[in-house]
Amino acid sequence: MSSLLFMLVMEYLSRALQKVGELPDFKFHPMCHSTKLNHLIFADDLMLFCKGDLKSIRRKIEVLNHFSRVTGLVANLDKSNIFVAGVDDAMKEQILQLTGFTLGDLPIRYLGLPLSSKKWTKIDCHQLIDKITNRITSAYSKTLSYAGRLQIINAVLFSLYNFWSNVFILPQSILKENGGLNIKSCKLWNIASVGKLMWQIASKADTLWIRWVHGLNMKDEQDFWTHTPSKDSSWYWRRLNSIKLTMGMWYTNGTYCLLTNGAYNVSCSYNQLLGRQLKLPVADLIWNSLMLPRHRFIIWLANQEKQLTKERMIRLQMPIEDDKCCLCGESKLETQVHLFAECTWTTKVKEALETWSGIKIQKTEVTECLKWIKGRHWKQYKKEIATAIWGARIYHTWRASNWKLFRGTIVNTEITITQTKKGIVERVDYLKDSRKASKCRYLVQKFCN
C-alpha cells in the first residue's frame, strides 16, 4: 500500500472513531473527557481510549469490525493488548471475551521509551542505564584514548540520556553530576529539558498534549504560573509545578526572556540553572581548535598535576620498581617538571620545535607555561598556535615515556619532531579559513608553505 493510500485509509478510521464519540451511550476515559479524545494514531500504531464499561468498548469493536469489512485490514490479536484499571475481575473477563485482546501490564515500551502510569523509580530506568553501560563496555570503547572516551560521553551517551530527559523527569538517584571536561550535569539538563514542556503549557502551544493537560489539570485557570496543583493530581504534574518556581523568573508577560526572539532554548536554560562558575583563565588555550582532542586531554590533566608520574605514584603510595626518568636515563626523579621541561629527550624536541616555529616559551611548569602564553600581547591565533605546538610536545613526551615504560620501545626524537611538525601543519592548513586565522595570515603562510 502506498503512503498516500495508507494515510487516506487511516483518516477514514480516525473519522469513524470520532463519530463513535458523539454517540450517547459512549463514555470517554475520565482523563480524556475534556478533550473528547478517544484514539491516537501514529504510523501503523493505534491506541484506543474509553471508559471501562461494555457499551463503550462494544462501540469501539464495532468500528474496528466495520473498518475490516471495508478495507480488508484486520487487527493482529497477537500484537494487540488491552489495559484496564478500576474494574473488578468479572468485568475484566467480560472485556477480554468481547475484544479478544490480551491483557497487558504497564510499563510497556513504545518508541524506545517505557510508558508507566506510576511515579518513576530507579528500576524503571534500568533500560537507560543498560544502554549506556553497553556503549561503555563495548569492544571499540575499550580501545579508545581518554579523549575518545570523552567524545563518547559527550556525544553518544549524552544523546541517549537527552532523548529520555526531554520526556521524563528522571529519579534523582540515577543522576550523576559531572564537570571539568564539558560534561553536562544530567540533573540540571533534565530540568532544563522538561522546562520546554512548561513553556509550551504556559504559552498554550497548539498541540494535542497541551490541550489535554489544560483540560485535565488547568481546567478554567488561564495562568500556568499562578496555578496550584490539587493534592490528587499526578506525581508528574506536581513535580512539574515545583520546577516552575525556579523558572518563573525567566518569563516576562508570558515571554521567555533569556533570548531576544522569545523562544525557549534548553541550552540557555541549562546555563542559567548552572549559574556563575569559577572559570579557568586558560581554558580557551587548552580547548582551542588547533589542538588535537587527545592533546587537549593530556594538557588538561597536566594542568591539574594529575599525570601519573613516578613522583606522584610515590605520593599515592603505589608500588614502582624505580623512581628514575625512563626517557633520559639520568638518575633524576621523574616529576612533571623534569619530564616535560628538564629531561634531555624533551629538551631536544623542545629546541627543534622552537627553532622551527620561532616561538620560545620561557617557563617550565605546565600551569606557568599556559599563563605565560595567555599573558603575551599576541593575537589570539598566535597564542593558540603556540599552545598547540607546546601541547603536542607534552603529549608526545608523555606517550614516549609510557611506551618506554610499558612496551620497552624507545621513541626517536627526530621521528617525534617530524610527526609534531606534520600534525601542526595539517591542523593549521585545515583551519586556515577560520575567522581567527584571517587576522594572522603571516603565520598561516609560514606554516603552510
Automatic annotation (TrEMBL):
Q: Which InterPro entries match?
A: RT_dom, RVT-Znf
Source taxon at top rank:
Eukaryota
> What keywords appear on the UniProt entry?
Signal
Q: What sequence ranges are listed for the domain Reverse transcriptase?
A: 1-103
User: Is the Signal keyword given for this protein?
Assistant: yes
The organism is Solanum verrucosum
Under which name does UniProt file this protein? Answer: Reverse transcriptase domain-containing protein
Q: Does the keyword rRNA processing apply?
A: no
Signal peptide feature range: 1-16
Q: Which PROSITE patterns match?
A: RT_POL
